[in-house]
Amino acid sequence: MNQDRADERAMMVQTQIRSRGVKDARVLRAMEIVPRHLFLPDEYSAIAYRDHPVPIGHEQTISQPYIVALMTELLAPEPGDTVLEIGTGRGYQAAVLAAMGARVVSLERIPALADAARVCLQRAGVENVSVFVADGTLGWVERAPYDGIIITAGTPAVPPALIEQLALGGRLVAPVGTADLQELVRLTKNSDGIRKEQFGGVRFVPLIGRNGWKL
Ligand code: SAH
Q1: Which tens digit of pLDDT belongs to each residue from 90-127?
Q2: What is the pLDDT of residues 59-97, one digit of tens each?
Q3: Closest Cα to atom 24 of ligand 1
Q4: Closest Cα to residue 185, out of 170, 198, 203, 171?
Q5: Domain count across the chain
Q6: Residue 209 counted as domain residue
Q7: Which end of the chain is more exposed for a tag (fewer CB within 10 A), N or C?
Q8: Which strands sit side by side in the sheet containing 82-86, from one edge to the other?
Q9: How far is the CA of 123 from the centre of ligand 1 (A)?
Q10: What is the distance in A from the centroid of ligand 1 to the CA of 116?
Q11: Active-site residue list
């Protein structure tokens, strides 16, 4: 992968991510490796490593680095795991998951963003991410079941299809709540049911689809 601006990433990991309690060494390493600036529109490249979300066009945003790291730590993908992401944007979160050794299927409803993501992933040298244009609230049954599922848009409830497509022992991480404020939730699927844990308030753009928010 492109190692430009490695010093800025090391600083980002130290001051924004490790300092807030993300500990998983594999996550910290992935955040140091993936060239976040290559996933932003050129006009925002300069501010790629700052502690806030950044616009990516089409009224969407790339999440703050800390939130990407936290959700990745909660998902805890192992090398070789198959992970489904809902909401590709320009592909940054998918690249972080791929850097941890996951095989990533990522769904995006806006075709122009899916195209941009493919370009960004290629110029960053990321393999193992397949981007499809689809309503992610229905999941992607072709590659199910998934060891991990991550929803990177705010949803009123976790779409049932996604719980169905989760493997036994699999984890699903999502922001669940109202359009303005969500709770970061992790569901773990076991033989005796679904365990739910909560990790605090977050703000995401809306998940729009058949089993999300309606347009
Ligand atoms: N994961 C991205 C951030 C994505 S922002 C990153 O790392 O930068 C949320 C994305 O979810 C937007 O691109 C939006 O278009 C997309 N989205 C919203 N509803 C969706 C749906 N039902 N299916 C697929 N993508 C959806």
Answers
A1: 999 999 999 999 999 999 999 999 999 999 999 999 99
A2: 999 999 999 999 999 999 999 999 999 999 999 999 999
A3: 108
A4: 198
A5: 1
A6: no
A7: C
A8: 129-133, 103-108, 82-86, 146-151, 166-177, 182-190, 193-202
A9: 20
A10: 13
A11: 63
In a domain, 167, yes or no: yes
Measured between alpha carbons, how far is residue 134 from residues 68, 86, 139 in Å?
Answer: 22, 9, 9
- The candidate with the shortest Cα–Cα distance to 121, out of 110, 105, 134, 137, is 105
Substitution site in 36, 152, 204 for ligand 1 pocket (most atoms within 8 Å of beta carbon): 152
Mean pLDDT score, 52-58: 96
Which pLDDT band, with edges at 50, 70 and 90, does 1 fall under? low
60 belongs to a structural domain = yes
Confidence band of 3 (pLDDT split at 50, 70, 90): low
Which residue ranges have their beta carbon within 6 Å of ligand 1? 60-63, 86-90, 92-93, 107-110, 113, 135-137, 152-153, 205, 207-209, 212
Arithmetic mean of pLDDT, 35-52? 97
Omega prior to 145 cis, within 30 of 0: yes
Question: Residue 182 is part of which domain span?
Answer: 6-202
Q: Taking the model in full, what pTM does it have?
A: 0.97
